[in-house]
Design brief:
heterodimer, A: mainly alpha, two-stranded antiparallel ribbon, 72% helix, 2% strand, elongated, B: mainly alpha, Helix Hairpins
């Protein structure tokens, strides 16, 4: 199976719960499990090839211009992580099916889980560092949904937010680091980047890139001092903790360090930063874990500690240490997932996770005791379990660091961390299961059904088997993964007995010391109570508050609720940016000759300025202002005619009519005068801003008009090919329906959405609180005596067919002469609206009951189908064809597929315009302003 | 001629900006209409001014004006109608619901300076 398919399968699986959940949670869980199993099978089939040293790849071009491609690869490291992610994912799906209660929505949970699984699989199988970043962010987002799954718990919501904040901040840093890495390597392909060790380590960008990438990895893998989010995330349902915080999400940072190990490791910077952080994390996490009261809290901090262990091993930078890290990744995933699931079982059985309330469960939950005992002993590093092997290797590597100049101190601290680890692991067993049985458990403890214990049992089995037969069970996988990390063949050999080595002595010391420490746990706990403990959550919250306050202060100083203030600032910013751009950019000299001023143009200019000025001066008298706006619109149309744009003129003039009607209808309900509520200063300031903006636009326009095109225009192509490719003489129309048809398609869709939004608002007005107010509406103007004057009625009714014919004519000629779907749509709308105005809403509705929203849909659909028709001819979307029909006795008639598209445009425009006007009319009718007084039935005709 | 058009566009912009800075919804709608005129004319002007050469293919005609800005502006005109209609509707809805056509957040709901 292609690695790309393996990574995509979980995403496809994420769709299944939504479809299946009605058939019950079992069906949904089985569906998800089947997809996971299928992906896992695909992964396992690659094992022979990967062991032979091959790397399976899949390449898909995505955005090759920026180096972002969907490249996948499957090598030993990817295989190891893939097996962990999909294998444990399978067990978690089973466990979650039985863990979640009836009230928990299983569908969304499984969907989030599959999304997360897909994102993780994507990370480990990516061969493109940019795509890996996409998956990386996806894990942050999907884990946010999972951690905060129990939305009713405040801790869950806070924990999820904290996890997202910390990991996403690190993710941002990592994006910068990875981009630097890609810049230095000259490629964003991971397999090419990791082959360039010398180039990257010799670059000046090495240190910044290293720091940024490590920031991302450390936050994700909860390394000190970013470890605090992980325990807070324990508010999640236990399956999530078991999955995210044992095997997967927190291992993503480890994975990244391992993946980039060939190019980043081996320098002193790497050693000091990574190994020191790892060591500190191992110690700090272990010590905090020892004193946790919450069962999952203990496991969370122990996870922090073990992640520190793996980080330290990677930080050592030696091949043997990297191999040991690979082994411990597997060991930790097995025993920690089992422990988390065991903690969930205890929680399920006793309804508490507080260790203080537990104890003596050995005889009450014998099965759980057995499982947790083995897993905890492995975590403590007691032979013969797999945890012992990895701890031995860790101590051996730490002991060897004496040669690197760090002296014996690393060895000593590592032994101390191991000692603490023994203590907290044994405490988990001793304080929960040993001792006398109590009679005050919140709930009578009992062992669970097989659905809950099967998963951890399998993992515990693996803990034992891989501990006893490490070479047979894991040797091949660790060898393959270590080879991928170190880029050199590795032949690790694991043995429970190495002879009398320093590591064995350190291990024995750790075990004895750990037991001793546990014996004096209460004394240590008392001592710890006296020591100051920094509360990470309080520090985090304080930091967050400060940042939020700064952001809020900044935002609110610009937008405080006054629209005018926000807009003035926006305008000023635009002007300032424009001036800055003008001064820093390059402008050609103004060489383009000016056209002579004609008397007609001068008259138009004067008219325009007078109309605009009067409009602004009298804008508070609204009806008058509307008339003046109409005049301005008319002159704009004339301007279009004058400067060779007949299509624009036609569109502008029809839109003008429709707009003025619309505003008049709206004014019916609005005050007819604008109250004066700004002082002279405010008006002066606004006038100043407006003058600046006007000057800026005017100067810019003049500057553009006096210069020739900076780049050769593509207009020539359009003009030349308008007839050849589009079959039309009207180049503007051909551009609209053919060359830029996709754009037009988007625009009629937007227009349709605007129409539907207006319709929805009208519905809300007519149905909601406002409807009572509307019904009791009293007009503020005297009404005309004759609401539907006879002359107007007769004229509009006669004009109606004529207007429709004109609309049809404009539509048909559009391809070759000024006209087209947009203009025809507007003309027809005006014809229809005239009937509303003259004869009244009720009369018009009785005769033209057209569902306008359907018209919009039909239009968009018609345009889409016409465009898709090109596919059948093997052409791209919206390619047009044309030809001629020869009828006897008439000139040849041209047909073009663009007509279909233009019909769509026509319908969408008519639908949207009419829906808007119709909505206003309905409001007027609801207010009882259409003929009969409200409350009495409409007569339907005048 | 270029100066006439540029100054007219500047005037329309200034009028539009001034009206959008008013505090009542209808004035803002008028201002946005004026701004639409200015923007459409500006976009159209980027094709430079050409007289008597419409982009409609005819035999024996030497040159045509740039059709691309025209196609852009044509859809822009229709879209700006859609936008105006939406804003008018919102203004109407707000007035009917709230009995007031002020556009600012009421002073008691504001935060930050000027509250």
């Amino acid at each position: 199976m292609s690695p790309a398919l393996i990574a995509i399968l979980p995403f496809l699986g994420a769709l299944l719960p939504g479809l299946m959940v009605r058939s019950g949670r079992s069906a949904a869980a089985i569906a998800c499990g089947a997809v996971t199993a299928f992906a896992a099978l695909g992964l396992l089939l690659h094992i022979p090839a990967v062991l032979a040293g091959e790397v399976a790849t899949a390449r898909l071009s995505w955005m090759p211009q920026i180096g972002l491609n969907a490249d996948f690869m499957l090598d030993g490291l990817g295989l190891l992580f893939g097996i962990l992610i999909l294998g444990i994912g399978l067990l978690i799906t089973l466990y979650a099916r039985f863990y979640l209660s009836e009230r928990d929505p299983a569908g969304p949970f499984l969907t989030y889980l599959m999304l997360f699984q897909g994102a993780m699989t994507g990370i480990v199988l990516s061969d493109n560092i940019l795509m890996m970043l996409v998956f990386w962010e996806l894990t942050s987002l999907s884990s946010f949904l999972l951690i905060g799954f129990w939305k009713h718990l405040p801790e869950g919501r806070q924990g999820a937010r904290m996890a997202l904040t910390v990991t996403a901040t690190g993710g941002l840093a990592m994006i910068a680091g990875c981009l630097m890495l890609g810049q230095v390597a000259g490629s964003y392909r991971l397999s090419e980047i990791i082959a360039q060790r010398e180039a990257i380590q010799g670059s000046a960008l090495y240190l910044p890139a290293l720091l940024l990438i490590l920031l991302g990895a450390f936050t994700k893998s909860a390394q000190f001092p970013f470890h605090f989010w992980l325990p807070r995330a324990m508010a999640a349902p236990t399956p999530v903790s078991a999955y995210l915080h044992s095997a997967t999400m927190v291992k993503a940072g480890i994975f990244l360090m391992a993946r980039l190990w060939p190019v980043l490791a081996g320098t002193p910077e790497w050693f000091w930063i990574v190994a020191t952080t790892g060591l500190a994390t191992m110690l700090v996490g272990g010590v905090i874990a020892l004193f946790q009261d919450d069962l999952k809290g203990l496991l969370a901090y122990s996870t922090v500690s073990h992640l520190g262990l793996i980080t330290m091993l990677l930080g050592f930078g030696t091949e043997a240490a990297a191999t040991a890290a690979m082994f411990h990744i597997i060991a930790h995933a097995t025993f920690k997932a089992a422990l988390f699931m065991g903690a969930g079982i205890i929680d399920h059985g006793t309804h508490t996770r507080s260790i203080r309330q537990l104890g003596g469960l050995r005889s009450l939950m014998p099965l759980t005791f057995g499982l947790i005992l083995v897993a905890a002993l492995s975590m403590a590093g007691i032979p013969p379990f797999n945890g012992f092997l990895s701890k031995e290797m860790m101590l051996e590597q730490a002991a060897h660091q004496g040669e690197t100049g760090a002296g014996w101190i690393i060895g000593a601290l590592a032994t101390l961390a191991a000692l603490v680890s023994v203590a907290y692991s044994l405490r988990l067993v001793a304080h929960v299961f040993l001792g006398p049985a109590r009679d005050d458990y919140p709930h009578a403890p009992h062992d669970p059904g097989p659905g809950l214990w099967a998963g951890p049992a399998l993992l515990v089995g693996l803990v034992v088997v891989t501990g006893l037969f490490p070479n047979a069970m894991l040797g091949w996988l660790v060898a393959a993964a270590a080879a991928a990390v170190t880029q050199a063949p590795q032949h690790p050999h694991f043995a429970l007995w190495h002879g009398l080595t320093p590591a064995l002595a350190m291990s024995a010391l750790a075990i004895l010391g750990g037991i001793l420490l546990l014996r004096h746990w209460h004394a240590a706990e008392a001592l710890r109570r006296h020591l100051p403990r920094p509360d990470a959550k309080r520090i985090f919250d304080a930091t967050e508050r400060v940042i939020a306050r700064i952001a809020r202060g900044f935002t609110e100083s610009f937008t405080n609720g006054s629209m005018s203030r926000a807009l003035s600032l926006l305008m000023l910013t635009c002007v300032i940016c424009g001036v800055a751009a003008w001064h820093t950019g390059l402008a050609r000299p103004d060489l383009r000759p000016m056209l002579p001023v004609t008397p007609v143009a001068l008259m138009g200019w004067v008219l325009m300025l007078v109309a605009t000025g009067t409009m602004v001066a009298l804008h508070r008298r609204r009806i008058l202002a509307l008339v003046l706006v109409g005049i301005v619109g008319l002159i704009v149309s004339c301007t279009f005619v004058y400067f060779s744009a007949p299509d624009l003129a036609l569109t502008q003039i029809t839109v003008e009519v429709v707009t003025v009607i619309l505003m008049l209808l709206a004014l019916n309900f609005l005050p007819k005068r604008t109250a004066l509520d700004t002082g002279n200063v405010k008006r002066g300031a606004d006038a100043f801003v407006a003058t600046l903006a006007g000057l800026g636009v005017g100067i810019l326009t003049y500057a553009i008009l006096r210069r020739d095109f900076a780049f050769p225009s593509i207009a020539g192509y359009m003009v030349e090919n308008s007839y050849k490719l589009g079959g039309g003489d009207n180049v503007v129309n051909v551009i609209l329906v053919d060359f830029r048809g996709f754009d037009t398609y988007g625009e009629i869709t937007v227009l349709g959405i605007a129409g539907l939004a207006i319709f929805a608002m009208t519905e809300a007005l007519l149905r909601g609180r406002a409807s009572a107010r509307l019904r009791a509406w009293v007009g503020d103007m005297r009404r005309a005596g004759d609401r539907h004057p006879l002359m107007l009625v007769v004229v509009t009714r006669v004009l109606m067919p004529l207007s429709l014919v004109v609309g049809l004519f404009i539509f048909l000629r559009g391809h070759n002469a000024p006209g087209g779907g947009f203009i025809a749509g507007l003309v027809v709308s005006v014809a229809l609206v005239m009937q509303y105005m003259a004869s009244g809403y009720a009369w018009a509705m009785a005769r033209q009951n057209i569902p306008y929203h359907a018209l919009i849909g039909l239009g968009v659909l018609a345009a889409g189908i016409t465009g898709a028709g090109a596919w059948f001819a093997g052409m791209p979307f919206l390619t047009s064809a044309y030809g001629y029909v020869h009828l006897w006795g008439v000139e040849p008639v041209e047909w073009a597929t663009a007509m279909g598209f233009d019909t769509g445009v026509f319908l969408a425009v008519v639908g949207a315009v009419m829906l808007a006007l119709n909505s206003l009319s309905r409001i007027a009718r609801a207010a009882g302003q259409d003929g009969a007084p409200s409350g009495t039935p409409q007569k339907g005709s005048r | 001629m270029e100066f006439l058009l540029a100054s007219a566009i500047g005037c329309l912009t200034a009028a539009g900006v001034y009206l959008t800075l008013r505090k009542r919804s209808f004035a803002v709608v008028l201002g946005m209409t004026m701004l639409s005129y200015a923007t459409n004319l500006f976009l159209f002007a980027t094709g430079r001014l050409v007289v008597d050469r419409p982009p409609i293919l005819q035999d024996g005609v030497a040159g045509y004006t740039d059709p691309i800005p025209q196609a852009l502006v044509l859809t822009a005109i229709v879209i700006s109608f859609g936008m105006t209609a939406l804003v008018v509707m919102m203004a109407l809805g707000a007035f009917v619901e709230g009995g007031d056509d002020r556009i600012d957040l009421p002073r008691r709901d504001r935060k930050g300076p000027g509250a």
